[in-house]
Specification:
Chain lengths: 311, 311
């Protein structure tokens, strides 16, 4: 099969489009014929070797851990799906991924693809959607009427976080560059902050929840915006607990895993018109290097998707 | 290039996947590398020869008149787009169409693709979207507060018509089978009618506008639902003027052409989160026969899309 593989950590030149063996599903696993895949920041963090201490990857490695496609073969004891089913997944990041014509995934990590969107849009949802959902629903437990600050609200995760927080009944403040104001407003934010022109304080204050996809200075500036008892959830770097304590708030870090239950909930939200993916850029699999460059630039709006196969 | 061509009118067997010459853009034209295309009922009506009196097609013919893709070459005096631009179109139905790797289109028939959705979703919009928009906005001139009845509200055209009427501030009644209730309600209808279980009258009455994508008995049963001075717009068969006159209403027929102005407005609505395509089925270009079978069955929900190339 055609696949993008890495034989070492490094720059974009380690991403090689080459022939690779078609993987076989073991017990409890299914093989998915990939239609769409997506690029996430974790992909190039792994490519650069940033996570080599945490995740025991072996080379050659097929990166990419977002997929929408069609069940192609079913291993023994795998009973939840049959050949031909349309499915989507964020599979185990320790295994070979989805920049390939076929990927083998544990059936427990798969959910039925949302029926009203294409495989391409569906591929953009799993990793970013699970992240936004778990941060806001499971960790922050956003309640109706609460004030939620979403940083990078035009980004792949932020654009979903805004919609999930709105669906929970929250008041949402979104930050982005002014060029993305119309997009972010279309997602339903109650207040838009152009981070290049406005300081966070005093434009934003007294929030219950901060959703942090940026870390660093932005995270640091966010503590003072929280109400006592509020919570900052970061998906980029673990918040220093001393800072949280000094402000009388909670600081949580989220590094998500596969979660078919959340995927099923996200599919329901999409089909009910309450969640729409935002596609920022589309590439063929062979253009994976350009796709990684765009992701690393931090300038993508919405999600970066890859066209791998046909339905 | 790979293309689906017909060498005669007939059944699905006349759709042949074969090699065809790459077309060259003449003055005022551009060549588009096709990423996504869509199947519309007019495609199989043309395939069967139903429109042979009206449209002077020559064989071999590349059918399909919905496309989203990337500008690949620009003819002389074509200045609106440049190579690499993402565009979408419903091109002139009298010329070779979009079931192909490349299609040549007059630049006046192209618009910039909506930025927040994939080429696959964008390909589903032009023909159906122009149809729904022109019927409701240009012909019926739907006003805020008016009551609009949309037949087949889960279909490719109806699902967009519901959203466009809602965006105009109308009260919308949508009909569909009960299996599509959740989908149709998610599009924003104020009233849902399961046409298999409920008679149109008395469930629906006193409407200002009927949008008819079904014709026949459904059109006939719709006259009595209109207020005096109301309008029925059909996109399938010309309403008998005697019937309209007898009810003191207007009966209009719409057969749309290319319209880049409407495409630009549809793109704005998509980017503003006011219009979302509904994808019902996805096929590879080589599976075009199955795609036509599904379209002819009348059982598709939303739009049928084709994966042709990569971005």
């Amino acid at each position: 099969m055609r696949a993008v593989r890495m034989h070492d950590y490094g720059g974009i030149d380690v991403l090689r489009v080459e022939d690779a063996p078609v993987p076989e599903p073991a017990a409890g696993e299914v093989r998915v014929r990939v239609v769409g895949a997506a690029v996430n920041p974790v992909d190039w963090k792994i490519r650069r070797g940033y996570l080599r201490q945490d995740i025991p990857h072996r080379f050659p490695l097929v990166p990419g851990w977002d997929v929408s496609g069609v069940v192609d073969a079913v291993g023994e004891q795998a009973t939840r799906f049959k050949v031909g089913d349309a499915v989507y997944s964020r599979p185990d990041i320790a295994r070979d991924g989805t920049y390939a014509e076929f990927v083998v995934i544990r059936e427990t990590e798969l959910a039925a693809k949302p029926r009203t969107i294409s495989h391409i849009e569906a591929a953009s949802l799993p990793l970013a959607g699970i992240t936004a959902y778990q941060a806001l629903v499971d960790i922050a437990q956003v309640q109706p009427g609460q004030r939620v600050l979403v940083h990078a609200a035009a980004g792949g995760v932020g654009s979903l976080a805004v919609q999930i927080a709105k669906a929970r009944g929250a008041q949402v403040i979104g930050t982005a560059s002014g060029a993305n104001r119309a997009l972010v407003e279309s997602l339903g934010v109650d207040q838009f902050v152009d981070y290049r022109r406005e300081a966070l304080a005093p434009a934003v204050r007294e929030v219950d929840v901060v959703f942090d996809t940026l870390g660093g200075d932005v995270q640091e500036a966010s503590w003072a915006l929280l109400k006592p008892g509020g919570v900052l959830v970061s998906v980029v770097n673990p918040p220093p607990q001393k800072r949280a304590q000094a402000h009388g708030v909670r600081g949580e870090f989220l590094f998500i895993g596969p979660n078919a239950t959340v995927l099923a909930e996200l599919a329901r939200m999409v089909e009910a018109g309450r969640l729409r993916p935002v596609i920022g850029a589309e590439f063929a699999l062979r253009d994976i290097a350009r796709a990684h460059e765009l992701s690393e630039s931090g300038r993508a709006r919405g999600k970066i998707v890859l066209y791998v196969g046909t339905p």
